[in-house]
Write a structure and sequence with these properties.
This protein is of the alpha+beta class. Helices cover about 60% and strands about 15% of the residues.
Length: about 230
């Protein structure tokens, strides 16, 4: 590889690593924030549904509890739901259309949310006058999160490709500030070596380390010419 190719590769690798790190950080933050938002929304839904079933639990009205759970059809992400009585027994259930209507609810647990087998579940206590009279279970799919992640990945891919293209064009242009003086110095050295003409001098184009190298090279040629 020529020095121009090496400089271009170094710039592209550096830019690529920085862009990938930034995109990965943003993706992780976005997914984490969106997941927390889904959990908060699911908890709110569970709280509303739970408050609407207090009367059904108090009077052991299973039909009313099933009707309340049936209203969850409006939330297409809700896969399964269940109301547990005070003793933890299943009081009423709900299953989204197209899923198993005779699913077996998990044992009742304390309040909390977690992700299990690609679904988010929440357990929410149902209270009346400060006393827990039951528990509500909701199970939601993560299709919204998966779709958002896929869209984010597409955007990141487009950004990375565009960034690499711009970085390549800029690096190919800007690397000449370093490569051109070195290439010119190499040509002069080659010409001196082949033609044995020590009167040749390299052209100095900058005042940096490369410029100092050109001065030293020209000084060396002067000494050799004098000898």
């Amino acid at each position: 590889m020529s020095i121009r190719q090496k400089l271009t590769s170094i710039i592209l690798i550096t830019c690529g690593a920085s862009i990938l790190l930034a995109c990965a950080t943003l993706a992780a933050y976005d997914i984490s924030t969106f997941r927390k938002g889904l959990a908060s929304d699911l908890i709110t839904t569970a709280q509303i549904a739970g408050s609407n079933t207090t009367a059904a639990l108090s009077f052991s009205d299973t039909a009313s509890a099933n009707e309340t759970l049936g209203s969850l059809r409006a939330r297409t992400n809700i896969v399964e739901a269940c109301i547990y009585a005070r003793d933890g027994s299943v009081f009423a259930t709900y299953a989204r259309g197209g899923t198993n209507p005779n699913f077996t609810p998990p044992p009742a647990e304390g309040a909390g949310t977690r992700i299990v087998s690609g679904n988010m579940i929440v357990f929410q206590p149902i209270t009346l006058n400060g006393e827990q009279i039951g528990t509500l279970f909701l199970k939601s799919d993560l299709e919204i999160l998966q779709a958002r992640t896929a869209r984010f990945a597409e955007i990141v891919l487009i950004v990375i490709c565009a960034s690499f293209a711009i970085a390549y064009l800029l690096s190919w242009r800007l690397q000449r500030v370093i490569s051109d003086p070195i290439v010119e110095l190499a040509r002069t050295a080659s010409a001196v070596s082949v033609d044995k003409n020590y009167s040749l001098r390299a052209t100095k184009s900058s005042q940096d380390e490369i410029g100092a190298l050109v001065d030293q090279f020209n000084e060396m040629l002067s000494q050799i010419q004098q000898r």
